[in-house]
Specification:
globular; single chain; about 30% helix; oxidoreductase; 8-stranded mixed sheet; alpha/beta; about 25% strand; D-Amino Acid Oxidase, Chain A, domain 2; FAD/NAD(P)-binding domain
């Protein structure tokens, strides 16, 4: 381990490892990269506890394009992340699509407005009326549905740890170093951060520091005397078995069911021979960074009633597993914060994904690498999701937040 690195990344899960990969893959970068990760098992990392899906059905063009790049990157992941002498990583990408259902006039209007943005960006998304929806997915009760939005390609789910480990393995093969330790302080002189202090007692100099510490982003920022409105919000995921599974009954996409977003906000998708589901809680306070106790009551009180009303097949279901993970929740506008601090320019944020970190990690990692190597964005301009809006209290509008 060196005494100084050109870039020190705080956090080695999917965001930090994506940054490390894109930096070391950039032909114009010949610097040194250190990734500091406090828990190499990633047991409680948001990455490991995510439902790991990707969609292009957003309302803002930037988010649509971020996911379009992510989807293409995930499709080609095995080739791009191949490490000599090792088996190519397989993310098992299921392109099952997303299905948004609208039951009210306002929900219908939102789907139509979002669809116009998505199509303008080239996303493969269609709108269906009630009859078209019933033909495509005959297992659903659709009498109350006014409109549906369905992603025919570029959307689905994949291996969460596969994505993270693929980035990590390739970054290490390209020269990035990973250190199991914890950043407990950040040194700063005036308008520059100069290094990190570790729990082990080590002091490491840094040319730039990237905050990729997930739900703990605010803790990392405070060490540098900075603020970021990111806090841990608990989300409980449930896996259930279905007595009479509807998987295979669709008349589109080879019979495969999509990830369905019910008008109530409950989501459900196939997970092998089971189904994965969840919902935003009625009350959603910030939680302790070490609080991972599932909210068991959400299944009986929120999720099962919505699913049973939506499909007869979901009346007879049984939970077989559940867990709680944390969103790195941006309390200003629920969207990513990527970019330099305007006053401390060598401190870079990659935070606040609010549940979209896995799908946005390729574009975010590429963007951060471009800022460091080139001093600005070369591909997708992420300026609108930069830190400046946090200072100004100016929310980045995104209507399709789940």
């Amino acid at each position: 381990m060196r005494a100084h690195y050109d870039v020190v990344i705080v956090g080695g899960a999917v965001i930090g490892s994506s940054v490390a990969y894109f930096l070391t893959a950039n032909p114009d970068f010949n610097g040194s990269v250190l990734v500091v990760e406090r828990d190499p098992t990633y047991r409680f990392a948001s990455t490991a506890l995510s439902s790991s899906s990707i969609r292009t059905q957003f309302s803002n063009p930037i988010n649509v394009r971020i996911s379009q790049f992510g989807s293409a990157f995930i499709r080609d992941f095995a080739i791009t992340m191949q490490v000599p002498g090792e088996a190519p990583p397989d993310l098992n990408f299921h392109q099952g699509g997303y299905l948004f259902l609208a039951a009210s006039e306002s929900q219908e209007q939102t789907l139509r407005e979002n669809h116009a943005v998505q199509v303008a960006c080239g996303a493969d998304v269609v709108l269906w009326d009630q009859a078209e929806l019933r033909r495509a997915f005959p297992h659903l009760n659709v009498d109350d549905i006014r409109l549906a939005s369905y992603g025919r390609s570029g959307e689905g789910w994949f291996s969460n740890t596969g994505l993270m480990n693929g980035f990590k393995a390739k970054a290490r093969a390209q020269g990035a170093e990973y250190l199991t330790d914890e950043v407990v302080a950040i040194d700063r002189t005036g308008d520059r951060v100069t290094g990190v202090r570790l729990k082990s007692g080590a002091v490491i100099g840094a040319g730039s520091i990237v905050n990729a510490s997930g739900p703990r982003a605010a803790l990392t920022a405070r060490m540098a005397g900075l603020d970021v409105p990111v806090e841990p919000r608990k989300r409980t995921s449930f896996v259930f078995a279905c007595a009479q599974t509807p998987e295979g009954s669709a008349t589109v996409n080879g019979g495969r069911l999509p990830l369905m977003i019910d008008p109530t906000g409950v989501f459900c998708r196939p997970e092998g021979r089971f189904f994965l589901c969840g919902a935003a809680p009625a009350e959603d306070p910030a939680v302790d960074w070490d609080d991972f106790e599932p909210r068991y009551h959400e299944f009986d009180e929120i999720i099962w009633p919505a699913l049973a009303a939506r499909a007869p097949a979901f009346e007879a279901i049984k939970v077989v597993n559940q867990w709680a993970g944390h969103y790195d929740f941006n309390s200003l506008d629920h969207n990513l914060i990527v970019g330099r601090h305007p006053e401390v320019a060598n401190f870079i944020f990659a935070n606040g994904y609010s549940g979209h970190g896995l799908q946005q990690s390729p574009a975010a990692g590429r963007g951060v690498a471009e800022l460091i190597v080139h001093g600005g964005y070369r591909t997708l301009d992420l300026s609108e999701v930069g830190y400046e809006r946090i200072v100004e209290g100016r929310p980045f509008l995104e209507k399709a937040v789940i």
